[in-house]
Amino acid sequence: MASPLLCLAAAALAVVAVLVSTTEAWRATPPPLPVLPIPSAPQLKWQCREVIMFFHFGMNTFTDSEWGTGSEDPSLFRPAGLNATQWMDAARAAGASLVILVAKHHDGFCLWPSEYTAHSVRASPWRGGRGDVVREFVDAARARGVDAGLYLSPWDRHDERYGEEVAYNEYYEAQLHELLTGYGSVSEIWFDGAKGKNATNMTYHFQEWFQTVKQLQRSINIFSDDGPDVRWVGDEKGYAGTTCWSTVNRSMITIGEAGIEKATHWVPPECDVSIRTGWFWHKNETAKPLSQLLEIYYNSVGRNCVLLLNAPPNSTGLVEDADIARLREFGAAVATIFGTDLAAGSERGAGFAARNVLDGRDDTYWAPTGEDGRRNGYWIELRLRRPGPGAQAFNVVRIQEHVALGQRVERHAVYVDGAPAFHGDSSIAPQSVPPPNLVATRESAEEAHAPGKDGSGETTAPFISKDESAAAGGLRAAAARVQMHLNPRLAARWWCWSWSSTL
Ligand SMILES: *[C@@H]1O[C@H](CO)[C@@H](O)[C@H](O)[C@H]1NC(C)=O
Ligand SMILES: *[C@@H]1O[C@H](CO)[C@@H](O)[C@H](O)[C@H]1NC(C)=O
Ligand SMILES: *[C@@H]1O[C@H](CO)[C@@H](O)[C@H](O)[C@H]1NC(C)=O
Ligand SMILES: *[C@@H]1O[C@H](CO)[C@@H](O)[C@H](O)[C@H]1NC(C)=O
Ligand SMILES: *[C@@H]1O[C@H](CO)[C@@H](O)[C@H](O)[C@H]1NC(C)=O
Ligand SMILES: *[C@@H]1O[C@H](CO)[C@@H](O)[C@H](O)[C@H]1NC(C)=O
């Protein structure tokens, strides 16, 4: 390897030892310059959440459908045992710190007693017509220390004003106002672009809606197909593309695009997917197996997205026990996979020292002082114990970028014992991309890697096998050295990152 900028020397007994830099990387230096665009504080907080949850609940729960017609009788809505606290326990089991409730789906039935329509919980027998699911939801979230978000469908198949541009937009805006003033802090608002092919024509006043939202809730993130704060990844499978920039040119954004380097706006994508087949609860459906949920995790969180996982409460008003158990398995698996940082154990330091890559914190990072790696990138090498008895085995590598200062790493390659194991590319088309289920990105360019059984770098053995043996702790690789090569974008003066690898 050509003059590694950094190298991690092995300590006799420790898993990984001390990072040694060929330069005085940890002398006092100012932070790197930001590369615009950078995330807003609410966006950065949102990206660090990694996994958030969706609750699709409403008239469809009682009619066994996904898209209601709008003509449902409100008396059908009677969730006898609704307990939003139980929903929060489901969310926390999955490790989610933000929960989003569908307050009104396309059928127009409102889960709160809106002053602007009769088609709501007020007309239902539930809690004698005095119930408010949105209230119970946000109260339960707060009590459990989870942030709340709301979904309000623009497409409304019930309301007679739908199709009358001014009247309907005013109605919608009034409901936004109700939801964003009556229920405390709302962290995310969801504008769904879904609409039936032959639905009535209707122009939505998105710009006015967005302005209203921001004026009422300053630290909210607005989701829609194209932002402004969070954009749709473009599918409902929970998979992002292998190239996935947080940056886009908003003026010409297309749904589901990979994002572009050197763009004008920071609009990270969100991957929405249900743990079941449908978004709403159906008696005949069950939760996806853990292996599939983990594969989704690697292809969403692992590719620079936030994963929005839907768990539909049933007609009793509870998330099924089996679904909660699955979410608990999922949360535990993610915590276990990233629970042991094999690279940990080096000394810690302040500033921007190389050893900051190993301190397990999001707010510290390494930044090279020189520009010598600017053209060809930088190498970092971690020396682990020799293979053989007592070898250091691992099957995931996580690489992250300190994106508070912008997204700059455009390429990376991982070598295990000198053999190329994996590479990824942030900036060009997904031909040269990693096999599925190997990638894990957090704030930005993070990779989870599954080398072959013998550490040869073959990527044929996926970390998560269909039989879920990985969840039982199956190990796939042992290695002496892990080397990573990262290319910053050429125009950038600085880049920085942190990483961890785990069993
Ligand atoms: C609601 O669910 C929570 C959490 O499962 C539980 O502790 C609580 O007792 C339930 N409340 C009622 C009224 O059943
Ligand atoms: C579209 O319109 C046709 C004819 O009116 C109707 O049969 C069909 O159900 C409609 N499709 C949807 C998705 O509403
Ligand atoms: C919606 O408007 C478009 C363009 O004006 C028109 O072609 C289409 O027929 C309209 N659809 C309905 C359902 O009115
Ligand atoms: C994005 O916008 C920037 C700044 O206006 C421009 O230089 C760049 O060419 C645009 N990129 C694409 C792919 O349109
Ligand atoms: C379950 O039932 C619903 C409604 O009857 C149906 O739309 C859906 O396709 C079924 N799901 C499966 C997995 O068969
Ligand atoms: C809803 O889920 C709860 C918890 O598993 C269960 O006790 C209840 O019977 C379920 N309701 C229906 C209608 O299946």
From TrEMBL:
Basic and acidic residues: compositionally biased ranges: 443-456
Annotated stretches, region: Disordered: 426-462
One of the record's GO cellular component terms: lysosome
TM segment ranges: none
Keyword Hydrolase: yes
Species per Swiss-Prot/TrEMBL record: Miscanthus lutarioriparius
Enzyme class, UniProt record, top EC level: hydrolase
Family of the protein in this entry: Belongs to the glycosyl hydrolase 29 family.
GO biological process assignments: fucose metabolic process; glycoside catabolic process
Keyword field: Glycosidase, Hydrolase, Signal
Annotated signal peptide: 1-25
Protein name, UniProt field: alpha-L-fucosidase
Location of the Glycoside hydrolase family 29 N-terminal domain: 75-332
EC annotation from Swiss-Prot or TrEMBL: 3.2.1.51
GO molecular function, one term: alpha-L-fucosidase activity
Taxonomic lineage of the native organism: Eukaryota, Viridiplantae, Streptophyta, Embryophyta, Tracheophyta
Presence of the UniProt keyword Repeat in the record: no
